[in-house]
UniProtKB/TrEMBL annotation:
Matches recorded under Pfam families: MipA
Location of the protein in the cell: Cell outer membrane
Keywords, sorted A to Z: Cell outer membrane, Membrane, Signal
Region of interest: Disordered: 125-155
The protein's name: MltA-interacting protein MipA superfamily
InterPro entries from the UniProt entry: MipA
Source species taxonomy: Bacteria, Pseudomonadati, Pseudomonadota, Gammaproteobacteria, Cellvibrionales
């Protein structure tokens, strides 16, 4: 039995309904996923994820491939890989390997930009945290002489000279509790790819409703990231950067998300989602960051193969 870390109407990372044990599976039930079966889908629509980085381009969401597999214990949900250690009718404890979503803002063509994190449990609820507020003025640039040229260099050229931020792999424990449409989701994760060796904790509360062919889901949560992780992505080292140096600390982001799904036919769904993430001061104080919010929105159709 696999409880998806996302809500029923989630796009991309959630396009695959949570699996039920084979013995409980009724073939025509929407929430039923046969053990040992692969599920493939493609989201097609219009969407965007805003980029909080200085001079960063917003990320378009147009085509979103989806893939999942549910075995007796092993499961795949897009970029999440897991193994169920223990489960009951309402609870589940898994080992989980998942990407860190903070890197998506630094690399437009990163694979993570083609999926959407779990509501509350993706980038920091994971991939990304939360925000709100007006963007601040960019920090003063270092004297042009540092670059060996008297030409003025704007944020775009300076950003390219910063050390590349890599996508890290986070591994740890995932816990779910679901009862009567309510859900509690916890992640305890640590970098296992030796990118930054940081840690991340995620907590989310969810509520799901179903009315006919409509599935609605609302979630809210928070993501705590230690200073090692935030400093890798949002810190600026001394000496080799063109921005003022900055050292990030432990950060707590918050997020709310709404998802809607409408079942059109065996192969087609309509999907929509709106997510708002607020970034904490420990991140927004970085000269690399201009906004304290990340907004993700998508509306379109999903084809299930």
């Amino acid at each position: 039995m696999r409880f998806s870390s996302s809500l029923p109407a989630l796009l991309a990372l959630v396009l695959l309904q949570p699996a039920m044990a084979a013995s409980d599976c009724v073939p025509d039930e929407e929430a039923c996923v046969e053990v040992g079966r692969w599920q493939l889908g493609l989201g097609i629509g219009l969407g965007v994820r805003t980029n909080p980085l200085e001079d960063g381009d917003d990320i378009p969401l147009v085509l979103l491939p989806m893939v999942s597999y549910t075995g007796e214990r092993f499961f795949i949900d897009n970029l999440d890989f897991g193994y169920t250690l223990w489960e009951s009718d309402t609870q589940q404890l898994n080992l989980l390997l998942t990407p860190s979503y903070d890197q998506v803002f630094f690399e437009r063509w990163d694979p993570v930009n083609f999926v959407l994190e779990s509501p509350g449990l993706g980038t920091a609820l994971n991939g990304g945290g939360k925000n709100s507020s007006d963007p601040k003025e960019p920090y003063p640039l270092i004297d042009p002489g540092v670059s060996g040229s008297g030409d003025f260099e704007g944020p775009e050229s300076l950003q390219r000279k910063l050390p590349k931020r890599h996508m890290s792999g986070l591994a740890g424990l995932e816990y779910h509790f679901r009862l009567g449409g309510y859900g509690l989701h916890l992640h305890w994760l640590k970098d296992v790819t030796d990118i930054h060796q940081g840690e991340e904790r995620r907590l989310a509360l969810s509520r799901a409703w179903q009315a006919g062919n409509h599935d609605l889901a609302l979630s809210a949560g928070a993501v705590w990231q230690d200073a090692t992780l935030t400093n890798y992505y949002y810190g600026v080292p001394q000496g080799d950067a063109y921005w003022a140096s900055y050292e990030a600390g432990n950060a707590l982001s918050t997020q709310v998300r709404f998802d809607w799904n409408y079942r059109l036919s065996k192969h087609w769904d309509l999907r929509a989602l709106l997510s708002y993430r607020r970034l904490p001061e420990e991140i927004t104080a970085s000269p690399l960051v201009r906004s304290d919010k990340v907004v993700t929105a998508f509306i379109g159709g999903v084809y299930h193969f």
